Amino acid sequence: MTVIATSFLQDKNFIDVCYIVAFSLFIVGLMQLRGPRTAVRGNATAAVGMAIAVAATLLTPGMGNWGLIILGVVIGTAVGIPAARNVKMTAMPQMVALFNGVGGGAVALIAWAEFRNTGGYASEPLYVVVASLFGAIIGSISFWGSNIAFGKLQEIIPGRPITLGRVQQFVNLALALLAVGLAAAIAAGSTDEILIVGVLLAAALLGNFLVLPIGGADMPVVISLLNAFTGLSAAATGIALNNTALIVAGMIVGASGSILTNLMAEAMNRSIPNIIAGGFGGGGAVAGAVGAGEHEGTVRSTSAADAAIQLSYARQVVIVPGYGMAVAQAQHAVHELAKQLEARGIEVKYAIHPVAGRMPGHMNVLLAEADVPYDQLKEMDDINPEFPRTDVSLVIGANDVTNPAANTNPQSPIYGMPILAVNESESVIVIKRSMNPGFAGIENELYYDPKTQMLFGDAKGAVGEITEEIKAL
Amino acid sequence: MLVTNLAILVLAGFVGFVVISKVPNTLHTPLMSGTNAIHGIVILGGLLVLGLSGGDTLNKVILVIAIAFGTINVVGGFLVTDRMLEMFKGRKPAKQEEIEEAKDDEEKAA
After folding, report:
1. Which chain A residues are Cβ-neighbours of B28 within 8 angstroms?
2. Torsion of CA B23, B29, B34, B37, to 10 degrees
3. Of A172, A328, A353, A367, which has the fewest CB atoms closer than 10 Å, so is most exposed?
């Protein structure tokens, strides 16, 4: 009896049916992830799919090396669970980058092991070789690129673009050609192990050089792009290993990741090639030239005490959070200020630009962490008509998303990007560290507007000071 | 077999495109994190190659690392996504309950 049961479970058809159930659950899970109410369930659905896929794979006849398999899974669990549990909400983007990177790394390592196992793909069909090598190149790029993205967001590596200057593009092209050339040599029949190691190393260098020149503020788009890359490389591994679950899951991520990347880039009015070209985050020569010297107006600065008075005599205050708030981790301080204002009967709303913080939904997650009521968070289209009725707009570390040049100056690199119309409110207080331009490297006309006052300082410190002043009033 | 797999690949691509269009901005980050967890499916590749052949010591080391990487991707990915989504949960449903309760009260009053 047991023999029959075992053979039934180990039947290729049974395993394939399990795979079909698994990827159906992935698709259902993703569909549930589209709505805020079903999202939590969606994530669980996809996780169940993953468990089924792994269990079915372990049933494959002839499986051995159980001790080593368990070792790998235990190590992975021991690292993954505490990392995911303990990460702060503000550090979420870089954590996703790390998890994405190890996925790409796994693909690259599997390709390497396949090469060694088969004596340099000696008797494999060409399509298997091509798919496996594609996985090796993309997986390696994704691993190293994600690590750099992590380093930049974690501020281990400077966030500003690090480039080789003009030769950068040539170096990248040469590395890409080297990786593809070595891979072609393998596909043509060479079985020397130095070749696959060369492929992985060239792709590794390329991954580093691709991401290093990109400014820290662009990182989330890059992470999303690398996420799509890892998905594609997983699909390629699926082709090489003839595994349906890998093909479907990998390709779905590849496709949806591409769309998501595009949505993020579009919301910033940037093209993906533009981001990849790099150098944007630090005020590149072209971007800088446009804004410089055009402003005749003067900048008025204010103090925390003045800001406090202005805020406490308002009827409606709209808070516009941005990357600066995320960097300073000022969300709790901001909510504290909002509570003080509400206690005085002032209406407080938050204006959330789709790409504020350079990560769609980033502000929502941060403010939700600080217990800001969900219904006070207003999306751009809902809040823009409110600005003319607003007494004070408090801009906290947001820059380009408030720049009126996007509407008025066709020369501006961000012309056409939808912005929050804070300049339509009665008055504007901008909390900012310095007059340095934002991530787009262009000046913000808003700061020269006569109704704008600048409060220079770190977002957390400045908001805290205002709160203290209001309490003292 | 190659053609069948390519057909599956193309169809899966279309599914991916369709599923993600029209998602509220708020959910982009959790969605990216969720898809990130799903490509942890690469762990299957590690399991199959190690389980079915293994090879020499270096190969085994490579594959154990690959499986560990895949596991981190899967376990960490789903956990992190869940934590992100937890933040949206609790608030909204609670409010809806309140609204529903209020409605119930009104009905009772009527």
Report:
1. 260, 263-264, 359-361
2. 150
3. A172
- Smallest CA–CA distance from A101 into chain B, residue: B73
Torsions phi, psi of A247, nearest 5?
Answer: -60, -50
> Among candidates A307, A319, A313, which has minimal Cα distance to A396?
A319
Partner-chain contact A103 B14, CB within 8 Å: no
Say whether residue B86 is in contact with chain A using an 8 A CB cutoff. yes
**pLDDT per residue as tens, chain A (473 positions):** 445 556 677 788 899 999 999 999 999 999 999 887 888 999 999 999 999 999 999 999 999 999 999 999 999 999 999 999 998 777 888 899 999 999 999 999 999 999 999 999 988 999 999 999 999 999 999 999 999 999 988 878 887 788 887 888 889 999 999 999 999 999 999 999 999 999 999 999 999 999 998 876 678 889 999 999 999 999 999 999 999 999 999 999 999 999 888 887 776 666 788 777 765 543 333 333 333 344 456 788 888 888 998 898 899 999 999 888 887 888 899 999 999 999 999 999 999 987 777 666 778 878 888 888 888 888 888 899 999 999 999 999 888 888 888 888 877 767 777 889 998 999 999 998 877 766 566 778 888 888 898 998 888 999 999 999 898 88
Distance between CA atoms of A202 and A162, rounded to whole angstroms? 19
Residues whose CB falls within 8 Å of the CB of residue A53, separated by 6 or more in sequence, listed in order: A18, A19, A22, A23, A245, A249, B41, B44
Task: Please classify residue A138 by burial: count the beta carbons closer than 10 Å to its beta carbon, then call 0-12 exposed, 13-18 middle and 19+ buried.
Answer: buried
Reported pTM: 0.77
> Which positions 118-137 of A are in contact with B (Cβ < 8 Å)?
125, 127
Contacts of B108 (CB under 8 A, 6+ apart): none
Q: Which amino acid does the sequence have at A145? A: G
> Residue A138: how many CA atoms within 13 Å on its side-chain side?
24
- The whole-angstrom separation of Cα A313 and Cα A86 is 41
SS3 A99: helix
Residue A247 contacts B, CB cutoff 8 Å:
yes
Q: Is A279 helix (H, G, I), strand (E, B) or coil?
A: coil
Q: Are A137 and A203 a contacting pair, CB within 8 Å?
A: yes
Q: Is the dihedral of CA A402, A407, A409, A412 positive or negative?
A: positive
Question: Distance between CA atoms of A420 and A320, rounded to whole angstroms?
Answer: 8
What interface predicted TM-score (ipTM) does this complex get?
0.83
Give the closest residue to A316 by CA, choosing from A263, A371, A361, A376: A376
- CA-nearest of A273, A263, A130 to A210 is A273
Tell whether B17 is within 8 A of chain A (Cβ).
yes
| DSSP result, A147-160 | HHHHHHHTTSS-SS
